Task: inverse folding
């Protein structure tokens, strides 16, 4: 029953009375009684908190935003104080008519004045919903929630819009077809606990996972497996809705065999609303950038996290930076977000010139190793052809394999140069290097911690290269010593370090290498005092023994090197290749853009964002 409320109210919010759906709660309150049984299939995961699609989805530009009188679909939610209304008449509600670049028909977005989500945030999130899904919405209402932040939220546009799509046929719903019910009776699991609610909610949740898979080269979010829900995925994926060309296309004018979009209800749509085609959105290039460990699971929340992980960090710049270096693991158990204050928003210094290059010889390989061929394909990291090259550096007898996608932003020369400058004591841990382009997102990278393969996209700077090369065997970031250092310190280097203890360790590693090269000086703008315990912990690791780290051979003895992948000494040891410090670059005064300590941690900020996406929560909670 409660679930019904949630479903019905959300559907109502998204569609409004414009569509005479038999499920419109306002018109047919008795609909709550429709018996939709709960599903008994086990859930794979408690929720969708472990992944985020925001930065993977490009926002659509807004061509115009014009205030309009409140449509009835919104004013219906206004009510006098003391009533059970979602928006009080004394507070008021405003409406904008929004014209996105990819659709000739404007959308109406209403916002109650006390909604925790600003209009800007609402529009940004809405604009990121793929146009093939967005076109099924008509009116969006943004309201405040009166319940405490943690209990709700996590209602997502894409999730709700999958419902909008589902209910867009007036008589047949995608989730009510016999094919969907067959899929449910054949499979042995559903995505998450919320999917167990009923066939309708499960359909919407599976739709979210399918969008994820389309974007991330067929991969499910970390922690999810295909096998036990393959029939559900196959059914959802077979729907015309999920044709990537139209779903992520540049126009809402999509003709397919699916149900009509809401817009089709507007007279004259076809003839009078010409779409503004935008070339840059016409081909959507999927890329991968998981953010495991990001995001604090919301206590009591059973809703899917889709776009709104964005809420964790606010929008735009932070996310662009997150894309920079994202470790990928099989699980998202990298620990909670850190609450220590960042010293700077990001790293603005460049280590390239401080690190000596290593000379090399290159041999083209006739075939791609699996780590590389697995990354090629029309919906994969590399959509062009890929070639593999073995690179033998002067300081190591074992070659490194670099696979470069033909359209990668970094040239082979750049890749060879940057990899060669990664200190040999770290470089020896790298397995394969897979380099692709970053057409829509900023440069970013991730490491598969299982294999040691690093994947680079766009033009990744030297600090990203260093960050992505973790010492695999001793897992210092999981040690008690590191946990204690984090407890004793009061800051971490930058915003990204807050992600979790693993990412913080990798960022500290970059700082440490800077300090070793610059006679103990930290990058401009950084102060060691508040992170002294972290730095001291690193001093104790043999990994950061400068003689070895910046030495002339990858054949380094000691247990820290047990799982190094490149350990054969070079044919000729260059005795002159020894560790040398470099003078501080006097021009690099703005190494770290200093940031005032606000006393507001990201987590707390998140609480602010994590509010009021959908009104239905009022009923749910
Ligand atoms: C970094 O985080 C702080 C809050 O800790 C925030 O105020 C700031 O905008 C963030 N900066 C960037 C560039 O992400
Ligand atoms: C890491 O590599 C292994 C082996 O190729 C693969 O099975 C796994 O899916 C990869 N993990 C991620 C998150 O890409
Ligand atoms: C990579 O190259 C593509 C075009 O080849 C370009 O659109 C994109 O902006 C470049 N990305 C970066 C990070 O330089
Ligand atoms: C670092 O911070 C400490 C404590 O706030 C302060 O005493 C010290 O002067 C700072 N050092 C530098 C180099 O700014
Ligand atoms: C660093 O490594 C070198 C070479 O293996 C060794 O001689 C030296 O003792 C090490 N230094 C420390 C502080 O362990």
Result:
């Amino acid at each position: 029953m409660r679930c019904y409320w949630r479903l019905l109210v959300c559907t109502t919010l998204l569609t409004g009375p414009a569509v005479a759906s038999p499920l419109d709660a306002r018109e047919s309150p008795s609909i709550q009684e429709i018996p939709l049984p709960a599903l008994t299939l086990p859930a794979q995961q408690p929720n969708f908190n472990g992944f985020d699609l925001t930065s993977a989805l490009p926002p659509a530009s807004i061509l115009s935003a014009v205030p309009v009188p409140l449509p009835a679909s919104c004013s219906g939610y206004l009510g006098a104080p003391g009533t059970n209304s979602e928006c009080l008449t004394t507070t008021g509600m405003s409406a904008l008519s929004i014209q996105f670049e990819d659709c000739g028909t404007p959308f109406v977005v209403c916002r109650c004045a006390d909604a925790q989500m600003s209009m800007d945030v609402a529009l940004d999130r809405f604009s990121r919903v793929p146009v093939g899904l967005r076109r099924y919405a008509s009116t969006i209402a943004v309201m405040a929630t009166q319940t405490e932040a943690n209990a709700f939220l996590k209602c997502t546009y894409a999730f709700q819009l999958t419902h909008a799509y589902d209910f867009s046929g007036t008589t047949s719903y995608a989730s009510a077809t016999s094919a969907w019910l067959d899929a449910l009776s054949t499979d042995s699991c559903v995505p998450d606990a919320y999917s167990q609610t009923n066939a309708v909610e499960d359909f919407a949740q599976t739709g979210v996972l399918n969008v994820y898979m389309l974007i991330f080269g067929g991969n499910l979010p970390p922690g999810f497996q295909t096998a036990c829900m393959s029939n559900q995925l196959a059914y959802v994926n077979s729907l015309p809705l999920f044709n990537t060309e139209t779903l992520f296309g540049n126009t809402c004018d999509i003709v397919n065999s699916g149900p009509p979009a809401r817009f089709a209800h507007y007279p004259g749509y076809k003839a009078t609303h010409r779409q503004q085609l935008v070339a840059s959105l016409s081909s959507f290039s999927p890329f991968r950038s998981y953010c495991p460990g990001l995001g604090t699971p919301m206590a009591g929340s059973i809703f899917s996290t889709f776009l709104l992980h964005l809420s964790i960090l606010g929008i735009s710049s932070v996310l662009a930076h997150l894309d920079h270096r994202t470790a990928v693991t099989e699980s998202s158990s990298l620990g909670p977000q850190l609450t220590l204050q960042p010293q700077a928003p990001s790293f603005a210094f460049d280590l390239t010139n401080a690190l000596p290059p290593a000379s090399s010889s290159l041999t083209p390989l006739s075939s791609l190793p699996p780590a590389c061929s697995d990354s090629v394909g029309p919906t994969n990291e590399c959509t062009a052809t890929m070639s593999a090259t073995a690179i033998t550096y002067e300081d190591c007898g074992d070659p490194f394999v670099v696979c470069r996608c033909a359209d990668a932003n970094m040239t082979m020369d750049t890749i060879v140069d940057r990899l060669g400058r990664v200190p040999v004591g770290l470089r020896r841990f790298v397995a394969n290097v897979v380099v692709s382009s970053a057409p829509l997102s900023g440069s970013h990278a991730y490491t598969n911690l299982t294999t040691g393969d690093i994947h680079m996209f766009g033009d990744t700077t030297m600090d990203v290269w260093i960050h992505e090369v973790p010492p695999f065997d001793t897992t210092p970031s999981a040690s008690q010593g590191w946990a204690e250092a984090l407890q004793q310190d009061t800051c971490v280097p930058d915003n990204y370090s807050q992600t979790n203890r693993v990412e913080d360790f990798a960022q500290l590693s970059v700082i440490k290498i800077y300090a070793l090269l610059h006679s103990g000086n930290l990058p401009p703008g950084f102060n060691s005092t508040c992170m002294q315990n972290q730095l001291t912990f690193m001093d104790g690791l043999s990994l950061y023994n400068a003689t070895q780290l910046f030495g002339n051979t990858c054949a380094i003895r000691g247990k820290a090197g047990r799982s190094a992948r490149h350990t054969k000494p070079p044919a000729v040891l260059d005795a002159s290749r020894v560790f040398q410090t470099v003078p501080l670059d006097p021009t690099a005064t703005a190494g770290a853009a200093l940031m005032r300590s606000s006393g507001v941690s990201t987590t707390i900020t998140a609480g602010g964002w994590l509010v009021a996406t959908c009104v239905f929560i009022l009923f749910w909670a």
